[in-house]
């Protein structure tokens, strides 16, 4: 089990104003600005559920490898590996990409369930998907 500290790129809570100066040949990067919005019907949203599964898998991989800043996304030691159960709520925000805040239920190795708040940042046009945060929820909210 590892003790890891939270590094959270300060994407959430900020509007990013991006000014793009690109050469004529460069692919235009779509930049849309906006606030955070709740995603409805999360339980039946397959894309969001799969995104939640991705977060748990990434977290397990990072815990396993313990290299670089891999283990820097959660600030509390957790049992490992975690089994994805479901995403229980989600928000998204457009910040030169998409930031998703997911509340994810997992099953721990001892069989008990636990909630984590996860932040994942996606830039589809760069085929980039990054787990920025994965923190246990202090008191379970069901
Ligand atoms: C987690 O998932 C694995 C693979 O499906 C399974 O073998 C294991 O029993 C599960 N653990 C718990 C605690 O549910």
From TrEMBL:
Keywords in alphabetical order: Protease inhibitor, Signal, Thiol protease inhibitor
Any Pfam family: SQAPI
Residue stretches making up the Cystatin domain: 31-137
Cited SMART domains: CY
Leader sequence residues: 1-26
InterPro entries tied to this protein: Cystatin_dom, Cystatin_sf
UniProt keyword tRNA-binding, yes or no: no
Taxonomic superkingdom: Eukaryota
Single GO MF descriptor: cysteine-type endopeptidase inhibitor activity
Database matches in CDD domains: CY
Protein name (record): Cystatin domain-containing protein
Organism: Eruca vesicaria subsp. sativa
């Amino acid at each position: 089990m590892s003790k890891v500290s939270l590094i959270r790129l300060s994407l959430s809570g900020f509007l990013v104003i991006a000014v793009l100066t690109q050469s004529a040949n460069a692919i235009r990067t779509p930049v849309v600005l906006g606030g955070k919005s709740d995603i409805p019907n999360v339980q039946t949203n397959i894309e969001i559920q799969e995104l939640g599964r991705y977060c748990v898998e990434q977290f397990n991989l990072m815990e396993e490898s313990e290299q670089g800043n891999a283990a820097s996304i959660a600030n509390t030691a957790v049992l490992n590996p975690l089994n994805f159960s479901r995403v229980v709520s989600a928000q998204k925000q457009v910040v030169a990409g998409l930031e998703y805040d997911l509340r994810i239920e997992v099953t721990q190795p001892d069989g008990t369930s636990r909630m984590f708040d996860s932040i994942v940042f996606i830039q589809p046009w760069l085929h980039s998907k990054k787990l920025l945060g994965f923190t246990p929820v202090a008191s379970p909210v069901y």
